[in-house]
Amino acid sequence: MAAGKLDRIKELTALLNKASKVYYAQDQEIMSNYEYDRLYDELEQLEQETGIVLAGSPTQHVGYEAVEELPKEAHESPMLSLAKTKDREELRSWLQGQPAILSWKLDGLTIVLTYRDGKLAKAVTRGNGEIGEVVTANARTFMNLPLNIVFKGELVLRGEAVISYPDFEQINRQIGDADAKYKNPRNLCSGSVRQLSSEITARRKVRFIAFWLVRAEGVDFANSRERQFAFLEEQGFETVQRVMVREDTILDAIEDFAHRIETYEIPSDGLVLTYEDIAYGQSLGRTAKFPRHSIAFKWADELRETTLKEIEWSPSRTGLINPVAIFEPVELEGTTVSRASVHNISILRSLKLGIGDRITVYKSNMIIPQIAENLTGSDTVEIPQVCPVCGARTQIRQVADAQSLYCTNADCDAKKIKAFTLFVSRDAMNIDGMSEATLEKFLNRGFLHEFADLYHLDRYQEEIISMEGFGEKSYRNLLESVEKSRHTTLPQVVYGLGIANIGVANAKMLCRHFDYDLERMMAAEAEELSAIEGVGEVIATAFAEYMQDPVHVRQIRNLMAELQLQNVEVSPDQNLAGKSFCVTGSLKAYSSRNELKDIIEQKGGRVTGSVTSKTECLINNDIASASSKNKKAKELGIPILTEEDFMAKYL
Q: Which domains does the chain possess?
């Protein structure tokens, strides 16, 4: 055996374990899914050729060890991963004449639930397949999870905790810091379920979708997997979308799933095929790593070869400079693609990119453009020594196990562009007509250095009017919008400052707590802030550090001198203090949900986007609706009130 093969096995084992650790335990990436799969297959082939499998090989264990912050618990039976294929014909051959169930392979966090006496007793994450993390309190906040079921025997089932694409995008929109935004729903879901605070989990709109019944004490399912699914649905569980297939129908079914994934709201990275006949599947046994009753199908990535034209270095307001690959346009999964994020310096270097290189590109999970492979490997891309926006020195920093590029200039205009864009946004100062492109022009010409400068643009009247895209009328309209924004509220100002983790809701909450007294807010220490319900240590520290920075203090004082704060109406009757409400459906007595939300907040209450065990009541004029919120409220015993009933009882 060539020594080179053993060296390669050692190298791949270490590299894949490192990538797995970063992905599962730290919710980060140092390589693409495509690259991981390619290297995994190479390692597996080398192990078969040589007969050597190192201790700790990723082909011999599942996932990564549970983090230390949550209690650990061993699973009663190992949670094995599935053998996989990208070949549709191989999937058909696997059936061997047997009927089977074809379903989505969901991309979230696998959870094992145990119910006893009709109540949720325990929730444990997959962890490393043998030992998981106990997240029972967090699971109780999942949007659609029944806490009480009709069946009173012991029930054990598995499913995927997921966050839908629309909910993921909404959560990211509420994060002002571009670099604090979550990379994908899986990372957000994993971090949400493994929170130490179930309140944070509850805000993330996590759903549970059941895909496997482990045991239901005393129930005969007549040897049918489909009957198990029907049983779970009768108990109130949402189950994975699926279809029964045979050898003559499976290819059409796969094609149907391939079409549907483009609009499917739940993250999925493939399909799962499971024998309908329970006994037959069990009779096949298992390998050291895979059970033989099921097999996973991963989409065969549609690869296109193209030429790398340039690497665009894109700075952001935190100083992170992201490399973006610009290539000759290609058609992928029905759309034209010409750019893909390279994520960080580590991935850039591993791809050995050079301008003019021939590369292959694909869409991860048929959605996100990625570079699969560099066919040339010239490795000539130079990492910029200076920021492309301000010219200041750049610095490569090690963040977890990945290297990233940063601008070292605290006053870099790229950072200011994002900060100013947030400041003028609708939920902040609401300056209509002040686009990011306009702000960039003003910053580049030196018109803006801090937020207060927006209220002195009249100093540059002649220059602005002469700028491309501007004229007398545009200038006047813009200044009118700026003047209008002087009349604002303190929560809008606080949100507009762009303090890390301070979204619209947190800004309102902090202002209410300090009775809309900015001086008190600026003087508050982190310890005092963290004691406020719903704040926590991370938010408290970020807020206190921002407010205690002398530069920020000066800039806030300059800004407040330009503004005329409107009093936020606070009802003397705080009868809703400490109570949470959820509003859904169309309203009659109020022009919008925001109007009703404002009234509830004026009386000390909170309005959340989902129904939880802490919800006081669900406000819905359609009480008989079969909506998910109505269903959740009924499961939890939460009252459902019409507007009229709500006003009669609370207002």
A: 3-50 (1.10.287.610), 82-297 (3.30.470.30), 304-407 (2.40.50.140), 413-485 (1.10.150.20), 490-565 (1.10.150.20), 580-650 (3.40.50.10190)
Per residue in 295-347, pLDDT (tens digit) is 999 877 778 899 999 998 887 766 788 899 999 999 876 678 898 989 889 99
Amino acid type, 630 = N
What is the distance between the alpha carbons of residues 256 and 296, in angstroms, rounded to a whole number? Answer: 17
Sign of the dihedral through C-alpha 383, 389, 395, 401: negative
Sheet holding 580-583, edge to edge: 606-608, 580-583, 615-619, 640-641
Q: Which is nearest to 359 in space by CA: 389, 330, 388? A: 330
Q: What tokens does 200 get?
A: 């944070």
User: Active site residue: 5, 21, 105, 629, which one?
Assistant: 105
pTM assigned to the model: 0.52
How many other C-beta atoms lie within 10 A of the C-beta of residue 476?
12
SS3 assignment, position 533: coil
Is 105 one of the annotated active-site residues of the chain?
yes
Cβ atoms within 10 Å of 523's Cβ, excluding its own: 13
> What does the pLDDT look like over 26-77, one tens digit per residue?
556 777 777 887 888 888 888 888 777 676 678 765 544 444 567 888 888 8
